[in-house]
Amino acid sequence: MAFWRKMLFPFALVFILGLLLASIKINALLLGQGWGLLAPVIIIMALVLLYWGFEQGRVSSREVAVIAMLGTIAAVGRVPFAALPNIQPATFMVIISGFVFGPRAGFMAGSTAALVSNFFLGQGPWTPWQMFAWGLAGTSAGVMGIIFPRAGKKVMTVFSFLWGYLFGCIMNLWTWTGFVHPLNWQSFVATYAASFWFDTFHATGNAAFYLLFGPSFVKILQRFRRKLEVTLLPVIEGDKNAAL
Question: Which residue ranges traverse the bilayer (predicted)?
Answer without folding.
Answer: 32-52, 64-84, 129-148, 155-176, 196-218
